[in-house]
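Subject: mismatched residue count in predicted assembly?

I count 386 residues in my input, but I want to confirm that the predicted structure covers every chain. Input:
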Amino acid sequence: MAKKVKNNKRQLILEEAAKLFKAKGFGGTSMRDLGAQVGMEAASMYNHINSKDEILELICFHVSNTYVSQLAQIEQTDTSYVEKIKALIHLHIRLMIEDGAAVSVANNDWKYLTNDKLEAFKEARKNYEKGFAALIEQGIAAGELQPVNTSVALFTILSAVRWVELWYRPGRGITAEELEENIMTLLLNGIAK
Amino acid sequence: MAKKVKNNKRQLILEEAAKLFKAKGFGGTSMRDLGAQVGMEAASMYNHINSKDEILELICFHVSNTYVSQLAQIEQTDTSYVEKIKALIHLHIRLMIEDGAAVSVANNDWKYLTNDKLEAFKEARKNYEKGFAALIEQGIAAGELQPVNTSVALFTILSAVRWVELWYRPGRGITAEELEENIMTLLLNGIAK
DNA sequence: AAAGGCAACTAACATTTGTTAGTATATTTG
DNA sequence: CAAATATACTAACAAATGTTAGTTGCCTTT
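Triage response: the counts match. Full output below for your records.
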């Protein structure tokens, strides 16, 4: 089964690339660096991928597509707006913990995408943000949330969840569940007494 | 006064470098790119700076030193812990708005610092975080804040303030003051009703 | 007017970069 | 078993990179 094997190697390259891009940035990672990590000469990787740019694209759109499709799913559930927003926060934290490197790349290195891919990514992100913002707005209109500035709330939530990538390691004395609960409380209720 | 002129050119290089590093990353910005932006051949800039690495160092430590010295000052004021934390949040937002490019570089490109400079930067940041965390802890102990996990609160605050760099432009329909007030409310009281 | 130094230039350097060509060895397919 | 395909390798490329050397013109000081 050549296909299976090929996909595995390809997947390995993508995973190692995500780790290296996260650690050293897209520009700071050479194909020879990546080859060394994968256990292969740089040139050999071209049997599995078409270009360095393609690696970045695959990582970024994998993450982007996950967010978009999950948002669509959450939008259709029959729950309160607060619950929907909590579900989105949960999604962000879980993805960060389970696939931190890829999310990190999609967060930080998307700007090295080229031409139409760059535009497509920005468009997808904008749409995601719009969908998220709409939930906040509706939550306010429904009286479930404080009348905060929607953009401010949106970006504060999105950012407040990003640091997990920089900080969370299994065995830091806090489980993923505790972490999530703490963040959720903070965003919903604040730190003031 | 040759010295004055020299400092001005040097300053210009640092400012344009911060903008470019923010837009395209440290690795994605070539000395020739920077020269074009400054209005000078790449080689000519070496009359004002010693290396590309030095540019990054100067930007990163300028920001880092500002944070550290301001924290020291705030620590010594005679106010409640809540007020001190609010002062720090205010500092972050103000710096982001006034010197966004440099702060952005210090946030994202510090990892390209080399050897001892990298260590020194990480050390400085760790100390800053420790000082900030101590204020939160003391605020909890004094009964001014909810008993949240200190690390979670610290990083949520630090991150919640970062997005300003990605989003805020003068003339976005919201003033710096409104922005600050909104973020402050959100972090202190949350979005839930 | 002469001298000295600052700041710009051009040209070139050694590396490193992403990628292709060509080749050899496995592995799968007929 | 033979043929075909997939996957690894080495060697090399053209372009781009940070940086240095050497030179020229300009401004300040004497």
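Residues 2, 5-6, 9, 40-41, 43-44, 47-48 of chain A lie near DNA strand D (CB under 10 Å from a C1'). Marking this ticket as 'not a bug'.
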